[in-house]
Amino acid sequence: MQNFRKSTFLGLCLIFLMTTVSFTSQVRSFLTLPTQQRIPVGEQVRLDLDFPNEIMEKLSLDVRTETDGVLKIDGSEMISEKVLGFSQTWPVAIQPGKVKLNLKLFGIIPLRQMTVNVVAQNKVYPGGQSIGVMLQAQGVSIVGYSPVKGHDDRNHFPAKEAGVEIGDQIISINGVQVATDKEAARVIDKAGDSKLPVEMILKRNDRKIEVSIAPEYCKETERYRIGLFIRDSAAGVGTLTFFEPNSKTYGALGHVIIDAETNKQIDLGHGKVVSAAVHGIQQGKKGQPGEKIGIFQEKGIRGNIEKNTTVGIFGEMSKIPENPYFDSPLPVALVNQIQPGSATVYTVVDGNKIERFSIEIERVMPYNRIEGKGMVIRINDPKLLSITGGIIQGMSGSPIVQNGKLVGAVTHVFINDPTRGYAVPAEWMLNETESITKTRTISKIDPGFLHISRNS
């Protein structure tokens, strides 16, 4: 029994020691080395380790390129493979390609293998302008139930009783594809007047569902209805993040536009962005998000909306939006180049004037791409805090610049602390523009969000 207790104690001590050691900055610098990394042309290929000099002297790095001409070291092109000590000059990437790194101890024992993809340096014009967003859904969405007062003076819910759910999307009614709430109301009334059922095809969680509904005549509206609130569009104010001059593609908002009632992503039919002016601010407070109050303007920014994604909306603009702070494009930082520390955000809090404010990047989360929340930020600028109280609706998409690079955009606020929130890395947003430029078809330019609903 005594031996068992002794061995248990020693085991617990060993676990404690290993846990303590694993959380030292030296060990963390090694454990957090990525196996896959991207760097732009012009940057050094290097490893930053926090070990004492005695250990660093025993480490070496085998650097191998798949093709010649990718790296340059000490002014000369590096051919094929080279072994580097940590006291030597690091190679510089001079053109896109792939680099294999092998970290070794005593030149023999492999510790970590890594792949570095050298990519072209992308440059964009940072935004900061307030924009009005008008989004037309693909089909019409069901956002609520609406009672139909029948001849018996009772409330009826024909669609609900037939199995229609909030969040469903109407694809067609009696074989007619409907794109607006007015079209849906017209087809339903026509079917009821002809004493025909409403045969409806719905989209629910990527599944198609067919339902048959008997429309009810409504005494209040004097037409046939099936008892639904439906909506075909959304509109609101946000912020432009960047403009890519070669493809004339913009990115904005930094997050997906969702239906406020159903909390689901709006399937894009078509949409556009226009200039907006801020004429009021509702300050953010703990538990109560603030908001920019804006109005759409006829002159200025004009663009279409081609994608509504988890990292923002994207489309085409005909010209570079004016920005007093940037007369030339800035490099887009890769996620691994973003550092915790001070940065600057650009946004509008009065009229159309873009202003810059200080913020702190508190944390970088490079593996959180699905949710688009790659950074935690904190507003620390006294002027911005006095005006907005922190991050508010309408600031979504406001560009963040650090060390001369566009690093990301403001996206979400922490409800319990409006001075803090999330941001999305600019690299993730820029990646979404690549598919647009490949598949873009020429289209003529003719979201807090305001919601437009109609009874049907």
Automatic annotation (TrEMBL):
Domain Peptidase S55 residues, every copy: 207-445
Q: What is its EC number?
A: 3.4.21.116
Q: Write the record's keywords in alphabetical order, separated by commas.
A: Hydrolase
List the Gene3D superfamilies.
2.30.42.10
- Residue ranges of domain PDZ in the record: 118-193
Please, which domain of life does this record's source organism belong to? Bacteria
Q: Name one Pfam family in it.
A: Peptidase_S55
GO terms (molecular function) for this protein are: hydrolase activity
What this protein is called in its record is SpoIVB peptidase
Q: Which organism is it from?
A: Metallumcola ferriviriculae
* Name of the gene: spoIVB
